[in-house]
Amino acid sequence: MTSIFISYRRDDAGGHAGRLSDRLVARLGADRVFMDVSDIRPGENFEQAIQRTLAKCDHVLAVIGPRWLSSLTERQSTGEDFVRSEIAAALLRGATVIPVLVGGAGMPAKSTLPPDMAALARCQAVVIEDRSFDEDAARLVNFLAGTQPAIAPRPASPRSHRTPLLALTAAAVALMGLWWLWPSPATNSQPTPSPTAEPVAAEPNLDGEWVAELQKPGRRPFRIRMTLARSGAQVIGSVTYPTGDAAIVDGQYADGQLTFQTSHVPQFANEPATIRVQGRVEGDEIRITTADTDGVATGVARRATAPRRGSLLDAGPSTQPATSPQDGPVTRPRRQQRPPLDAPDQSP
Questions:
Q1: CATH of the domain at 217
Q2: Same domain, yes or no, for 114 and 11?
Q3: Mapping DSSP to helix (H, G, I), strand (E, B) and coil, where does residue 43 land?
Q4: Which residues form the domain of 241?
Q5: Collapsing DSSP states into helix, strand and coil, what is residue 67?
């Protein structure tokens, strides 16, 4: 069973890697896609953590953006480059490494790579362009799922189609001549009614507010509130988490699948938290899966309902007078205010 590790630089291709991860998780499942080494045990060597994670994966996607090579060069002097360690370890253990070129980046030449990464230059790259991201990413996902090649085959030249096309045309003309000359029996058969087209299922309406109750394994459940607005395949909106609000980025909807990601700085934190969300729309529910560096949460989102009048969620008491069916408007007795504790005694 295919397992995939995504290697990327946050400041170079973090958005592209996140969108690609969403599509892989939706197709293969969250347990078969690894985007960050998030299970490092306290005190464990990072190199050992990489080896342990890569041992689970037989494919490694090296997402390369416009700043990938310059960052590699800058970090060679410090010796602290997690991306270099990931790719070098994958090449050493013989995993299939696929360079994924995004943002208009080109394939690095062998002369620009350090010795432990030189073999990367001989790996067949896949290009994902921004203008055709969905099609290019779908082709790569299908390849990793084992359904088609990652590189689209070149269309055959028009010359190669000429002979079969002429033969088919001649055969069609001959069949039409035979049909015209063949005597047809006189029958009073009724015309065959045209088949009734099956009704097309209506697209779900995502617009509005949704409340999802989610839970990570071994953790307490929590709720998020999503405000969604869809236009074609694009989805915009915002999400309210227990730790703060965030705008939806790269929101997409296709074939019942909702994907987007958010980024916000949680309360009492200094670094932003990126959360990737994917959902399967099923009637009036959305099966939600979220993934961040702290793990994966799952749950169900349902449409938010407005609070009923008189509930604790109301803004305040009603200012309308109470009414009685028999007597008309009834004035509510005003509650007598208590004097403050330090007021002087005014009793006779």
A1: 2.40.128.120
A2: yes
A3: coil
A4: 208-303
A5: coil
Q: Indicate the angle between helix axes 10-28 and 68-75, nearest 10 degrees.
A: 120
* Side chain identity, residue 138: A
Comparing 283 with 172, the larger pLDDT belongs to 283
pLDDT tens-digit profile of 145-157? 886 555 544 344 4
Measured distance CA(177)–CA(183) in Å, rounded: 12
Number of Cβ within a 10 Å radius of residue 264? 19
Q: What are the DSSP E strand ranges found in the chain? A: 4-7, 33-34, 59-64, 96-101, 126-127, 208-215, 222-231, 234-241, 244-247, 249-254, 257-264, 273-282, 285-292, 295-303, 322-324, 328-330
Q: Number of folded domains in the chain?
A: 2
Percent of the residues in the chain that have a pLDDT greater than 90, as a whole number: 33
In this prediction, residue 323 has a pLDDT band, given cuts at 50, 70 and 90, of very low
pLDDT (average), residues 33-41: 69
Residue-level pLDDT at 320: 43
User: What are φ and ψ of residue 218, in 5° steps?
Assistant: 75, 10
Burial degree of 71 (CB within 10 A; 0-12, 13-18, 19+): middle
pTM beyond cutoff 0.85: no
Kindly give the residue spans of alpha helices, DSSP state H, lying in the chain.
10-28, 46-54, 68-75, 82-92, 133-144, 158-181
